[in-house]
Amino acid sequence: MAKKKNVTAVVDCGVAPGMSNLLVGYADSQLDKTENIKVYVGGLPQIREWPFEYKAVFSPADVLEEYIRPARYIQDGRIVTKSALSEVEYIYFDHVGTLEAFNTDGLRTLVTTIKAENMIEKTLRYPGHIELMKVFREAGFFSKKSIRVKGVDIIPFDVTAKILSADWKLKAEDRDITIMRVIVDGEQGGKRRRFTFELFDRFDEKTGVHSMARTTGYTATAVLRMLADGHFSEKGIIPPERIGKIPECVDYMLKELEQRRVIYTQKLERF
Fold it and tell me: pTM for the full model?
């Protein structure tokens, strides 16, 4: 329908999915064979506060969905499914230290648009948060099955989301950070190559705009300007990785974001 109406619709156009897809698409276009893709991403409060050490930079209910929705990823060329909050890794990042990463269903269109032997996306949190969320999940607080309490039918998931929304809500004085690392490796000209892209972004003190709003919103508006300026004209439903296969469009996006102090670093390793 989009093609018939001569419309370009760029979907999943935020930080992840969004820029993560675009950067994966770019690296894939530079390689003769893409073998491994890893995406690590998270939005976190700048200051850790007990007990959750987390603030929701979008709907708490949507955050909780990440903790219960099975995660799809590619392993040995096949789609596999694991439970959310599984296969925890501990990874060091400059500026913030060691974070824990767990499986989430964030690959989206990449599962079918990019051919790679292994491909996975994981969400980042401060250490300790995952274990706490596992306890909540196993105890039934994330259940969507109705239970009766004092003659009233309630959904535990809805009650939990309502309670946590007060504690997780970003207050006026709160500051947030956004962290992402995208790693893509494979073969190019018979040699091994690895692309690594990193983002570390903070709340903007000058404008008062939170980091998650900056890194998602500015990506969407940069794509709109790119379309308006005539740099991309393909019609239909367009996932960001399709745009990433055009180096000129990638350069445009990175420069637009850099002008707003959203900086992605890139490293290419040859081995």
Answer: 0.93
